[in-house]
Specification:
Elements lengths: L1 H22 L1 E4 L2 E3 L17 E3 L2 E5 L5 E8 L4 E4 L18 E3 L6 E3 L3 E6 L18 H5 L13 E4 L8 E3 L7 E6 L11 E2 L1 E5 L4
Antiparallel strand pairs: 1-2, 3-4, 4-5, 5-6, 6-14, 7-11, 8-14, 9-10, 9-12, 12-13
The structure holds 2-acetamido-2-deoxy-beta-D-glucopyranose (6 copies).
One 2-acetamido-2-deoxy-beta-D-glucopyranose binds next to loops.
Protein name: Wall-associated receptor kinase galacturonan-binding domain-containing protein
Keywords: Signal
GO molecular function: polysaccharide binding
Length: about 210
């Protein structure tokens, strides 16, 4: 009897870690990929699809644009993706033609409310919106650093991404604003060089 119970206990204990390992995907580059995130059909949950391309973990938008995953927090169910590069010779985000970042409405990922979005080269009509386009908007601080060189001295605006109605989209377009970046959990009084540039997404726990 004792032996049977012991064997049972050992059997249960030994299956737990292996079942867990089967479900989570292999590391991609230097990032581990916790469940439910999935980089191939044999691991993770297919609804949480990411891509491991040449050792770089990437998130794909509805528009088919890949954004590099910079970090993953498995405790808070969050990933931070890289804002799209701004063409060095202009003030145009590389995803401008797709209208910016757009996440499928049925995706378990949405844009968290810890992002402050900075918009550049905005048209005059944007001043009427609830965005902060004033001369002391935090977007002016970004202009001072290298990344914004071609966006300098154009109208820029900022806003905290906390509207539930639009949590799957950061919009740019010709005639409105043509470039953007995002800062996670911004501290406006700190120097921009210490900001975390990225777009934080959070995922819903699988049912
Ligand atoms: C992971 O690798 C990238 C370059 O491939 C590097 O920029 C980054 O600092 C590395 N992160 C860690 C936590 O080692
Ligand atoms: C991950 O998220 C948890 C919960 O919000 C937080 O306590 C922790 O500091 C985060 N880890 C990192 C590395 O940011
Ligand atoms: C600013 O936006 C306009 C269209 O809204 C575009 O024609 C122009 O090229 C942009 N400026 C830069 C420097 O990219
Ligand atoms: C814009 O942001 C700056 C810096 O945070 C703040 O001082 C100012 O009051 C804001 N203006 C508006 C109109 O929200
Ligand atoms: C923002 O940064 C300043 C200067 O480093 C610091 O004194 C302050 O506590 C920070 N604020 C928050 C909310 O972390
Ligand atoms: C975004 O996703 C998180 C996690 O699933 C959820 O708690 C939050 O309500 C969602 N936000 C919106 C605006 O739908």
């Amino acid at each position: 009897m004792k032996i049977t119970l012991l064997h049972l206990a050992l059997a249960i204990l030994s299956t737990l870690p292996s079942a867990f390992c089967l479900n989570s995907c292999p590391q991609c580059g230097n990032l581990s990929v916790p469940y439910p995130l999935s980089t191939n059909p044999n691991c993770g949950n297919p609804n949480y699809q990411l891509y491991c391309n040449n050792g770089a973990l990437e998130f794909k938008s509805v528009g088919g644009i890949y954004y590099k995953v910079l970090s993953i927090n498995r405790t808070s169910n969050r990933i931070v993706i890289s804002p799209p590069p701004v063409d060095p010779g202009s003030c145009l985000s590389s995803d401008l033609m797709e209208g910016g970042l757009q996440i499928d409405q049925t995706s378990p990922f949405n844009i968290s409310n810890r992002n402050t979005v900075l918009l550049f080269n905005c048209s005059k009509t944007l001043l009427l919106s609830p965005l902060n386009c004033s001369s002391n908007s935090v977007c002016r601080k970004f202009e001072a650093i290298d990344g914004g060189i071609k966006c300098r001295n154009k109208r820029c605006c900022s806003f905290l991404k906390d509207s539930p109605s639009n949590s799957r989209r950061i919009r740019v377009r010709v005639g409105a604003c043509t470039a953007y970046t995002s800062v996670v959990d911004i501290n406006e009084t700190e120097d921009p060089s210490s900001w975390t540039f990225g777009i934080e997404l959070q995922w819903m726990t699988p049912a």
